[in-house]
Write a structure and sequence with these properties.
alpha+beta, 16 strands, 21% helix, disordered N terminus
Length: 335
């Protein structure tokens, strides 16, 4: 999926009467027959992830370079000193980013850390059909998953107290460090986003600066509503940083430009610390799939239509709107 560079304006409008959205969902993956899924709406996704996990996937068991190599590369990317905390040959590597302190109660500051587990067996069967139906960024994503036999798990640690852009910068630098030092890595799997990238697409991130995280940590999903011409598309992954995801429930629009549009809106929320209030509007998409400042679509915050349950910014697409909506005054779950 590509990224557009459209700018989103916003205008405040009176809040409409609140409505509830229908929730039955069917998924369809590229190149596969349509699959029908039962919604599991019990339980809510955490507002954000205390630990953020990313999996490097391999076809052959990798050799892990020495910890000094990781500390050196990570320091270059973050432009700060990196202290090695643990370096067990058959266990965890962990590193402290001295330039990213997290302040705790009492004013105590502790540097945010990153962790790396040793190579371990990967069990692709644990990624279920629902998640496999949304692997839009790679060709034959399910086959790519099934070809991988090993994983190296990456995570942050004691970093959830950072401002989300700093945390995302840390995670991005850690992943890109690992990609450089594991040339045999086949793919990257981000569980919180349900996003799979092959090595080429992971290495060739088209974004710059703090926005680079969006390429790794945010997926756009597409669902048909069974028995109707309605569709739901949403982002998945912003919630893991404590931000609202974005949702569109519509009919009559081409899903391809809608996917780019949702990435754009998600990036606008990410880059600007969720500036849109309930009842304000963003630029919409016209019938040709172009972002059009002359079209204003109203935004509300509500519970997601499609699992996992989390707060989303629902955009009501004017004449293309489907379903019924119930908004609330909550701006999201930012921490």
């Amino acid at each position: 999926m590509g990224f557009l560079n459209g700018l989103f304006g916003k205008k405040e409008q009176p809040a409409p009467q609140e409505e509830r959205t229908e929730t039955a969902a069917g998924g369809e993956a590229a190149g596969e027959r349509e699959q029908v899924f039962r919604q599991e709406r019990e339980g809510e996704a955490p507002d954000f992830h205390k630990l953020f996990w990313i999996n490097l996937l391999f076809r052959e068991k990798p050799e892990r370079p020495a910890p000094e190599a990781f500390a050196g590369k990570l320091g270059e990317k973050l432009r700060c000193a990196i202290d090695t905390v643990t370096q067990k040959e058959d266990g965890i590597y962990s590193f402290a980013a001295m330039g990213l302190p997290v302040e705790y109660e009492g004013g105590k500051k502790v540097p945010a850390q990153v962790l790396m587990a040793p190579p371990n067996s990967f069990e692709p069967e644990k990624i279920d059909a629902f998640q496999r139906s949304q692997l839009w960024d790679v060709r034959d994503g399910a086959a790519l998953l099934d070809s991988c036999k090993y994983t190296v798990m990456l995570s942050d640690f004691m970093a959830s107290g950072l401002p989300y852009p700093e945390r995302a910068r840390l995670l991005t630098a850690w992943l890109e460090t690992a990609l450089e030092l594991f040339p045999g890595c086949t793919a990257v799997w981000t569980p919180s986003a349900g996003k799979l990238l092959d090595r080429e697409r992971a290495v060739n991130n088209p974004l710059s600066g703090e926005s680079r995280f969006m390429w790794y940590g945010v997926n756009v999903r597409f669902f048909n509503i069974q028995g109707s011409d309605e569709k739901v598309m949403d982002t998945l992954g912003l919630y893991a940083l404590g931000l609202p995801d974005v949702q569109l429930h519509f009919r009559g629009l081409d899903p391809d430009p809608v996917s780019n549009y949702l990435y754009n809106v998600g990036q606008y929320l990410y880059d600007n610390d969720v500036p849109i209030k309930p009842g304000e509007t963003v630029d919409g998409v016209n019938a040709q799939g172009k972002i059009d400042q002359g079209i204003q679509w109203e935004c509300r915050y509500e519970q997601a239509l499609i699992q996992p349950m989390r707060t989303v910014m629902d955009i009501c697409p004017g004449s293309f709107a489907a379903g019924r909506r119930q908004g609330n005054g909550n701006k999201g779950n930012k921490k």
